[in-house]
Q: What sequence folds into this?
């Protein structure tokens, strides 16, 4: 297996990504979803965690060789940035969702000097809104954001468009299409469910995938 397939297998095996196309989950927005994702579960699975952190270190070295600092997203990306930073012998910090209301009122935690080359570490990319906010905070602080390294991306159109508009690159260890294929190969879902999952990914607001029959 290549790294994308290995991480897909890992996430499925610990139910960090869990498909339930016949009994959809309901998001806070009310949208019905066939997939549940909680990559925090990788932290309590040492073997999977090792694959993830070594994978992040590998993609960062290959895609962002000039990186000087890793910055995790709050809160899911913090641990991954810390462990990957340790593996790469790089400084790390993280960006809060908002500035503290006490002390120095920091939004960026950890030292960051203007002009430093930063990679943002994120666990999951869906619509891209939260990670782009992190990128903007870092840019406003004078950092040169080389891009994002993430564990998993849905590849949703809205997310791809937002990343392109923000002129920020994202490299993920695995993606929705790979995980759907591996899930079918390993018996987590039926092969005919793949089209339904992709239909959801392409247009989450269109719930016709729920009753769609595949030939």
A:
């Amino acid at each position: 297996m290549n790294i994308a397939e290995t991480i897909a297998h890992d996430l499925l095996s610990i139910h960090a990504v869990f498909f339930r196309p016949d009994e959809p989950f309901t998001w806070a927005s009310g949208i019905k979803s066939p997939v549940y994702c909680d990559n925090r579960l990788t932290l309590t699975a040492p073997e999977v965690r090792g694959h993830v952190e070594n994978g992040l270190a590998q993609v960062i070295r290959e895609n962002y060789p000039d990186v000087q600092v890793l910055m995790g997203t709050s809160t899911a990306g913090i641990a991954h940035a810390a462990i990957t930073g340790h593996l790469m012998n790089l400084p790390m910090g993280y960006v809060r969702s908002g500035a503290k209301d006490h002390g120095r009122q920091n939004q960026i935690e950890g030292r960051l000097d203007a002009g430093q080359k930063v990679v943002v570490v994120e666990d999951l990319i869906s619509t891209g809104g939260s990670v782009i906010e992190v990128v903007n905070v870092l840019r406003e602080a004078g950092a040169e954001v080389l891009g994002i390294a993430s564990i998993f991306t849905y590849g949703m159109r809205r997310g791809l468009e937002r990343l392109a508009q923000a002129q920020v690159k994202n490299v993920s260890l695995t993606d929705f299409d790979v995980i759907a294929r591996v899930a079918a190969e390993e018996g987590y879902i039926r092969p005919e469910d793949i089209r339904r999952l992709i239909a959801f990914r392409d247009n989450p607001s269109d719930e016709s995938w729920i009753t769609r029959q595949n030939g």
User: Anything to note?
Assistant: The CA atoms of residues 128 and 160 lie 8 Å apart.
